[in-house]
Each structure stands twice: as C-alpha cells, then as structure tokens.
Design a protein that fits this description.
single chain; mainly alpha; 2 helices; 58% helix; rod-shaped
Length: 50
C-alpha cells in the first residue's frame, strides 16, 4: 500500500497551492490598503508607475 506524502512537491491546481495562493493574495490586498492609508495615494502612484 502506497501512502501519499503531504510534503511532496506537486505542480498544478492542488488544494495546498490554492491555499497558499489565497493567503498571499490576502496579504497583498491588506498591504495595498495600508500603503494607500499611510501615503494617501494609490499603490501604482506610490511606486511611480503612473
């Protein structure tokens, strides 16, 4: 009987990859809100892109 190791590297749309994607997206969104609140300007303007 072969058991699946949770720490194996898997590519594609795995539940673990989607969890990380969601967590990092939430961190990025909160960081963008903090930058806008502290600087008083949008993220793209803050970085000098527009």
């Amino acid at each position: 009987m072969q058991t699946e190791n949770r720490n194996d590297v898997k590519f594609g749309f795995t539940p673990q990859a989607e969890n990380w994607n969601g967590r990092l997206a939430m961190i990025g969104f909160v960081a963008a809100l903090i930058i806008e609140y502290v600087s008083g300007q949008g993220v793209l303007h803050f970085w000098g892109l527009i």
